[in-house]
Amino acid sequence: MLSRRLFSLANLRGTIPSDFHFVPDFFSVSEQRTLLSAALERLDAAGSRRFQKRRKNSRSKLNTAAAIYEAPLSELFLPDDCYEFLQVSPYLLCIWRRHTNAKFAFAEGHYDGVIHNYRETHLTSWPTAEFPGLVPALSRLQSVLPSSNIQTHLLHLASDGEILPHVDNVSASGRWILGVSLGSDRILRLESCANPDEVAEILLPSGSIYIQSDTVRYQYKHSILRNSAFANGAGQRMSIMIRVSPSYDRTIPNHS
Ligand code: OGA
Ligand code: MN
């Protein structure tokens, strides 16, 4: 478990539920650069040819040496129109609305419209050979995981991307979820399923990690607000989501 349970007051509004752990400055800027570059590389490789070409054209217009070592982290992202972000159809949105009327809103993967303007991939391996700093950064991350047998997802939100309130599918993963935030700041909102007035909002800076486990994982909905919710986060955001596999964690609580 995380050795630090830190909240700087500037990061927080409301009362944080128990079982939520947050380290605002877990990764250094150079670790963030490495993780973000590797994550973009993996997502880009999975994308369509048309967009790969667009990215190539866009990159050739940039000064890539500066973009990698000196420019702000946000410049590792190309403009939004270089990525094939998925939108959500009205039909899927309608299904999501029905979920929210239930006591618990579960995300069926992400395919029921909980996320808008995003791309994602399930990660089977990191490109460690291409990014020398990756192994030490990942092993630091590994040292704070509550258990092994994990699944990793990369989730890239467009500048206007958002994640609507949901509880992660309880049959798809177990009792904890770790999120690494890279790129533009976003607000994570937690809302008690039993009492919607119990709300906490946490500002997630680039390089921060959080863990939702047990109570907060099962009894709170979480969402990532759109950029318009606050002033200084107009860009794209990557999250590395790590979850424990359900088959290694059979103790799913009964919500009824
Ligand atoms: C998710 C999710 C939160 C984040 O992928 O289910 O809620 O921090 N992500 O990106
Ligand atoms: Mn989620």
Describe the structure.
With 256 residues, this protein is α+β, with helices and mostly antiparallel strands. 25% of the residues lie in helices and 30% in strands. The chain is built from six helices and eleven strands. Strands 1, 2, 3, 4, 5, 6, 7, 8, 9, 10 and 11 form an eleven-stranded mixed sheet that branches. A hairpin with a 6-residue loop joins strand 7 and strand 8 (199-204). The structure holds N-oxalylglycine (OGA) and manganese (II) ion (MN). Manganese (II) ion binds next to strand 5. Manganese (II) ion is lined by residues 107, 166, 168, 222.
What secondary-structure arrangement, pairings included, does this model have?
Blueprint: E1 12-14, E2 20-23, H1 29-46, H2 49-61, H3 64-69, H4 90-101, E3 106-107, E4 115-123, H5 134-142, E5 150-168, E6 176-183, E7 186-192, E8 199-204, E9 209-213, H6 214-219, E10 220-224, E11 237-244
Parallel strand pairs: 3-5
Antiparallel strand pairs: 1-8, 2-9, 4-5, 5-10, 5-11, 6-9, 6-11, 7-8, 7-10
The site of N-oxalylglycine (OGA) has 9 residues, from strand 5, strand 10 and strand 11.
Pfam families: 2OG-FeII_Oxy_2
GO biological process, one term: fatty acid metabolic process
Protein name: Fe2OG dioxygenase domain-containing protein
* Unreliable residue runs: 95-109
Query: Total helix count?
Result: 6
Structural class: alpha+beta
User: What compounds are bound to the protein?
Assistant: N-oxalylglycine, manganese (II) ion
Helix content: 25-40%
* Helix and strand sequence: EEHHHHEEHEEEEEHEE
Global morphology: globular
Beta-strand content bin: 25-35%
> Kindly state the mean pLDDT as a whole number?
83
Distance between the termini: 28 Å
